[in-house]
Amino acid sequence: MRSNQVTIKDIARKLGISPSTVSRALKDHPDISPETKRAVKELALELNYQPNAIALSLKHSRSFTIGVIIPETVHYFFSSVISGIEDVAYEAGYNIMICQSNELYDRERSNANMLYSNRVEGLLVSISKETCDFGHLQFFQQNNIPVVFFDRGTDAFPSDQVLIDDYSAAFDIVNFLIQRGHRKLVHLAAPQNLKIGYFRKKGFEDALKKNGIDFNENQIIFADKFNVATEAVDQLIKKGNLPDGIFAVNDLTALGALKALKRNHIKVPEEIGLAGFGNGENATLTDPPLTTIDQNGYNMGKKAAQILLHRIANGLENFVPERHLIETELIIRSSTR
């Protein structure tokens, strides 16, 4: 079945000239008269002609497209990263294809295969919670397609990474909680195969020890989603084992904890302090607003895209991986004393 998309042949047929003349006129070739150029461009505009990106990529062996794989779109952080990526890509004349793994390894691998089949020139990826095998990503570099990890990285193979110092950021926010008088703390944690999960837990643990507070594994609750956090905090309340401070691995998890506290009439921050991680828009809309860490997702996206475009332009010969840290900021609001 024929596509309704207007082609160069359609323009040529209507004007009674050759397709090659239309092509050259659209490119302002000096051999084409001004009158013919004007006629071609006016008709192209009238017919809403758009160049065929697939045909152009085959002709020039370039797609001018980069792939992006994120775990979830629900997080404000990832949407801000995408904004940074898009701004850099657009300025450089690149399109982006965005895929979501839904925190599933199989979906991430399928996304990667699809992006490779669509001839992306580079890949930006934040791995899923389930990802422990990186062959589907290393495959890109083995075929001279650069890969840059952002937010969630890996040491499984040499690669560029744009991250934050998750350990220091977690240490700082937990240290702040303790200084404000919240000393009986729990951490709503992410899976430990993720570096962000491991280092945020480690920062929590070391902040307690630095302040002379004993740490034990019972203070770690693996809950990194809204509903899971709500249920986990409900259980703490039912058992009469409520802490006086909670540090959540991300803002949505903190908001899940806040929901449980509110419906059980527990006052925040008077009875319990609450801190998240990410500084999404929801962090300012809650009652009370959430103390959190700003990850500067937009800057992370910009930097990751800049590194990727540099790799695309210069190739992977004599490749030396680059690790870039984005600065974070402790945002103090009224969910803590």
Please provide a written account of the structure:
The protein is α/β, with parallel strands linked by helices and 337 residues long. Helix content is 45%, strand content 15%. It has 13 helices and twelve strands. The chain has a six-stranded parallel β-sheet, with helices on both faces. Helix 5 (76-91) links the parallel strand 1 (65-70) and strand 2 (95-100). Helix 5 runs parallel beside helix 13 and helix 8 runs parallel beside helix 9 (195-210). The relative contact order is 0.12.
Short structural summary:
The protein is of the alpha/beta class and 337 residues long. The protein has helices spanning 8-15, 19-26, 34-46, 53-60, 76-91, 105-117, 135-142, 166-179, 195-210, 226-238, 251-263, 282-285, 297-314, and strands at 65-70, 95-100, 122-125, 147-150, 160-164, 185-189, 220-222, 245-248, 273-275, 292-294, 323-326, 329-331.
